[in-house]
Write a structure and sequence with these properties.
Keywords: Molybdenum cofactor biosynthesis. The protein is of the alpha/beta class and 173 residues long. It contains five helices and six strands. The chain has a single domain, classed as MoaB/Mog-like domain (Molybdenum Cofactor Biosythetic Enzyme, Chain A, 3-Layer(aba) Sandwich), CATH 3.40.980.
Length: 173
């Protein structure tokens, strides 16, 4: 028996940029993500910019995970291989369940553009307290690739055969 596509349901999504060198006014990747959240029909719940500090990152994302109004978090930046990049270490410990294939698929998709440099991306995703969390590299191109190819379809209830929408929302627990 075929499953009918569910109707689109707007989600409340928070966007976080992790950077030691940009301000909100210079944050083209955060601007891109905020724009596509709106363009897709979702609500931008919050937007923030923090430095590469695992404890500040963990504190803010923990608050968003606990907030019943926030259903997804998209983080850009801090996923590279340099010592100062803290996003995977800060965020992965918060996951109730990692989305195992996200990073692998992101690296696979970015290989066409970056070649072997794609192995240095530490993009990750997971679920925590019925909140989807996606961590992308900080370049606007990486945010575009991650949003268009992976995140947007999974945050759309009409995507078949499955999507994350039915797993989101603290009110339904």
């Amino acid at each position: 028996m075929a499953r009918c596509a569910a109707p689109f349901r707007p989600l409340s999504i928070a966007v976080l940029t992790v950077t030691d060198s940009r301000t909100l006014e210079q944050d083209s990747s955060g601007d891109y993500l905020a724009d596509v959240v709106h363009a897709a029909g979702h609500r931008l719940a919050e937007r923030a910019l923090l430095p590469n500090d695992r404890y500040r990152l963990r504190a803010l994302v923990s608050a968003w995970i606990a907030d019943p109004a926030i259903e997804a978090v998209v983080i850009n930046g801090g996923t590279g291989f340099y010592d100062h990049n803290q996003t995977p270490e800060a965020i992965a410990v918060l996951f109730d369940r990692p989305v195992e294939g996200f990073g692998e698929l992101f690296r696979h998709l970015s290989f066409a553009e970056l070649g072997s440099a794609s192995v240095q991306s530490r993009a990750i995703a997971g679920m925590a307290n019925r909140t989807a969390i996606f961590c992308l590299p900080g370049s606007t191109g990486a945010c575009r690739l991650g949003w268009e190819q992976l995140i947007a379809p999974q945050l759309d209830a009409s995507t078949r055969p499955c999507n994350f929408v039915s797993h989101l929302g603290k009110e339904s627990q």
